[in-house]
Fold:
Amino acid sequence: MNSFIHNDFLLQTETAKELYHNTASHLPIIDYHNHLSAWAITENKNFRNITKIWLDGDHYKWRAMRAAGIDEHFITGAATDKDKFLAWAETVPQTLRNPLYHWTHLELKRYFGIDELLTAENAEHIFDVTSEQLRTKDFSTNSLLKKMNVEVVCTTDDPADSLLHHEAFSNRRNSFKMLPTFRPDKAMNVGDTMGFLVFIEALESSSGTKVKDLNSFMHALLERHNKFHEIGGRLSDHGLSHVPAEPFTKKEVETTFKKLINRKTTSPLDQNKLKSYLLLEFAKMNYHKNWVMQFHIGALRNSSTRLFDQVGKDAGADSIADHKHAQTLSRFLDALDRNNVLPKTILYNLNPSDNEVFASMAGNFNDGSIPGKIQWGAAWWFLDQLDGIDKHINTLSNIGLLSVFIGMLTDSRSFLSFPRHEYFRRLFCNILGNDVKKGWLPNDIELLSGLVKNVCYSNAKNYFGFQV
Structure:
């Protein structure tokens, strides 16, 4: 048996153990940002084996397998599901000190009750045992979410999505809420004329609006924004290399839009002006409906042309970008703030060198209307691991107020990723416990447990206003 993932995993002090076991471990999960399939949740899908639920689409694992020398045939290629799992099991011992090693064994234990280290030697047995479990009703998507005490999941959805699955799910009794998130990245992708035109066609179909100019385009997007709100959506999300904040006139952006829909060439400057206009308009939509606006900033995506041609986007060829963000982000937020249309906003940075920039930026625009109106979001992507979370908590504590932080999320495509909330909670309690041990915080369990409850659950519940 493996005692590695034991009851006090990551908890180094008695205070940490008390905080985690008596407070954090029992709290429901509000997963306010992920990439789960709304269809799979609505259909209460069962996956036929662990490869389908655990490896398909998981670019964290794909990157590790490539680094370990696994051929693409066993990653995204035509190998059987079992052979792909065996290749992953061969990789796992090589992931020591990578967060995948922790996550892998947490997930095997929490979902399947497997308390042994995954290796090439036991891989076939684990594949068979887990696949058999996954085909039972206790391992359907809804059962898995219920098992993890999930209260809310917010999927990530294109404005042109029909939302039929969300509607169907909302019309029946469920143990948790599933809500859509408005992600208009394709509406901002004005540098890809053909892709932009394809999006417009889909938008016209879903909104019932013919797009002939910028005003009708915005009307169609507002119609979809209204539909998201009707179903319960209360968040937008924007994946950006950097925040555009180029000065523009309405005539300039109207002219650029006309050129795009007529397939005429537009300059990078004109495109950036149009993006700046669009992002401001999305923010205003959010403000007027009391939504939360999220910015995931700083990814350099699809770097490998070879992998993009072979696998497509989200193949695991993304990395941290090194843009400068402070001036444009400040200009954008200030433009909204000075016109009293700045919505609740969460800023996520991918480059750890930007931690202090983003933490301090969030503090510039709080207005006393609610606690933590502008949030520096949880450690994201390459940073959502032991060291990244520790640095995030320390920087937030030094520059802002940890007490109003809205906590962790999975940002995952996998239904087996929810132990990441446990991982965060254990690390958070351990940080507090070590501070008590060093004399940096009072040994007041009531005070500390209140902080743990707020950061791990209550702050998010209050911030988003979900009716749960």
Remarks:
- The longest helix spans residues 268-288.
- The first strand starts at residue 29 and ends at 31.
- The two ends are 39 Å apart (CA to CA).
